[in-house]
Design brief:
By secondary structure, the chain is an alpha/beta fold. It contains ten helices and 17 strands. The structure holds flavin-adenine dinucleotide and FE2/S2 (inorganic) cluster. The site of flavin-adenine dinucleotide (FAD) has 25 residues, from strand 4, strand 6, helix 2 and helix 9.
Length: 281
Amino acid sequence: MYKIVEKKELAPKIKQFEVAAPDIAAKVNPGQFVILRVCETGERIPIHLVDSDTEKGTITFVFNEVGKTTNQLGLFNLGDNIPNIAGPLGNPTEVQKFGTVLCVGGGVMIAPLLFQVSALRKAGNKLITVIGARIKDLLVFEKELKDLSEEFYVATDDGSKGYKGLGFLKDIFDKQKIDRVIAMGPVVMLKTVSEMTKPLGIKTIVTLMPIMVDGMGMCGACRVSVAGETKFACVDGPEFDGHQVDFDQLIKRQRMYLPEERLSALFHERLGGIKLGRCEG
Ligand SMILES: Cc1cc2nc3c(=O)[nH]c(=O)nc-3n(C[C@H](O)[C@H](O)[C@H](O)COP(=O)(O)OP(=O)(O)OC[C@H]3O[C@@H](n4cnc5c(N)ncnc54)[C@H](O)[C@@H]3O)c2cc1C
Ligand code: FES
């Protein structure tokens, strides 16, 4: 049982939990994730970690309520116990002094980007950070990321704050030498950034989020194609060279269960299962 010691609402449908999990907190590094279940018969959902506190024995993660399980999770309150959390899983982000690093975060994945940005900053890199969301209300951790970065930019799809879209990244690449790019967010964003940096020869590391089940390399659900080879994102990643990823295949695989996901969310909403925040219904 993993007790929630802090719950915050960062933006509409985006929640942050700090959870007592000393065994995980002792081992976690930026770039890693956990797989949790909201009840014994619930599905396993992967969530990246945003922070850990070894003294308090806690881990922090941020999630977007997009479907059945994340909505159920959002109904847990301070003091409630999450029955099952496995981790840390995946390989940690490579952290060393690269020089100038452009860090791009989109949507809810701006949150775990903060963990990586903090580590890259401590390693002595100059950081240029770009965060983006559909609309300005969904931007999170603006101040924290701005404080850690030499340059900081905001973009929104509708132009409600900062630049409209990511086209302005071209100006950043024209203006100065970038040694490395890291990107976390929707797969379309990862693809766009990788396509921009490939002709410039800038090493680009993207975090992939295919559907996962066991998170331990056994089920094959998370397979992705990288440099023409099959990789399992949970054990070989989740970070890969963006210039080698077959993004179109990943997009197709991510959408594989859309009809079932929609039905499941609707079914549980109508039957009150989501309202209960547990597995009943
Ligand atoms: C390594 C990794 C790290 C992630 N980190 C975060 C995070 O920090 N914060 C966050 O909000 N979300 C994160 N996600 C996405 C999160 O796991 C999904 O949003 C969640 O599983 C959706 O479940 P649902 O039942 O609420 O929605 P559903 O309606 O079941 O699914 C909505 C969408 O989420 C994706 N998804 C569904 N099930 C899974 C699954 N088992 N594994 C991966 N993706 C799935 C699919 O693209 C699907 O279309 C991460 C995913 C991966 C693979
Ligand atoms: S989630 Fe099963 S192999 Fe990666």
